[in-house]
Amino acid sequence: MGPHRYGPGYGPSYGPPAPVSVGLGRSNTSMTLLVLAALGTLVGVSGYGGFHSTGSARILGYGFAALFAVPLVMMLVGLPRLLRPRYLVFEPRGMRIVAGRVQVAIGWEELHALGLGYEQAPEKEQVIPTSVDDVQDRVAEYLSGKVSEALQVSDARRIALEIFPTHPQAVERYPLLRPYWHQQAPPYPGLPWQRWRFPLPPVVSIGEAVGAGVWAFQPRRWLGWFPRPWSGKSGRR
């Protein structure tokens, strides 16, 4: 038999692995539209009921309209970020951070280590509602949770890709990444205090995909998962 001849995409490959792309956005678009429609309907129905009622019923109707309007505004404010495609791309020369039309490429030689820092909120004590105000608070918490799920944020768990640079001056080389630059005690000895902290959706499978992407090209730089102190409910660090 003569030598084997393989067409494109067939046969053994001895080159570097293909780039690994991990999507970070648009995964909950259908959920977002569903929650938006539900909230808009609830605001309209509650406001309509309050307008056509009197006394305490009017106050209650307007109160519920305002209650549903808060998460609705939250979603409308966060909608552009959700609909903007975001990716992390890992390839032989380094990694790329893609957010819409903006791309930042960092070579592996500039990275000391990468890992996934996670925060877990302390468990809340369950309290049985005993008044109308308690019920409204429960409804607000439930709606806030649905909005957070659609916007891919969480008040119970946070995951971030922590990128430790080789040199502290790396922040000057990548001005677009300055908002993600933080200082915090490193998870392991020998790592710098400075690092980029890039928030990820609170989805374990996305974190695992990021780990697989780094491991495919630079396994010695991969730190795995490590805990971080809970940073509080408001905002993402």
Summarize the structure.
This protein is α+β, with helices and mostly antiparallel strands. 38% of the residues lie in helices and 24% in strands.
Folded structure, characterized:
- With 237 residues, the chain is α+β, with helices and mostly antiparallel strands.
- It folds into two domains: 23-82 and 128-150, no CATH class; 109-121 and 156-227, no CATH class.
- Helix content is 38%, strand content 24%.
- The protein has five helices and nine strands.
- Strands 7-8-6-5-9 form a five-stranded mixed β-sheet, with helices on one face. Strands 1-2-3-4 form a four-stranded antiparallel β-sheet, covered by helices on one side.
- α1 runs antiparallel to α2, α1 (29-51) packs antiparallel against α3 and α2 (55-83) packs parallel to α3 (132-150).
- Mean pLDDT is 77; it is low at 1-12 and 146-153.
Quaternary structure of the protein:
single chain
Quote the distance from N terminus to C terminus.
62 Å
Calculate Rg over CA atoms: 23 Å
**Based on DSSP secondary structure assignment, what is the total number of beta strands?**
9
What is the total domain count? 2
Shape annotation? elongated
Helical content band: 25-40%
Instruction: Give the ordered list of helices and strands.
Output: EHHEEEEHEHEEHE
**How many helical elements?**
5
Based on secondary structure, the structural category is alpha+beta
**Largest pleated sheet:** 5 strands, mixed
